[in-house]
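Sample pair:
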Amino acid sequence: MRTIRDIRESLPDDQRRHFDAELADTAIEALPEMLNRWVALSDDGFEEFLLSRPFEGMEFGARTYDEEPDVE
């Protein structure tokens, strides 16, 4: 389980202010929904991972069902 601090620290600086403002105005009953939404928006490093090795080891353009069957 992530903590509110973990969520907050994973956000870019410009989004932290928005998170803090929404957190301050969110009712206790609505807190789980708000936090789940921000978890989905938070930066878990996946985007940087994809950009650091874009499509490494992947082959595009060929699909197995595009191959002609061997007819004898």
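The CA atoms of residues 3 and 35 lie 9 Å apart.
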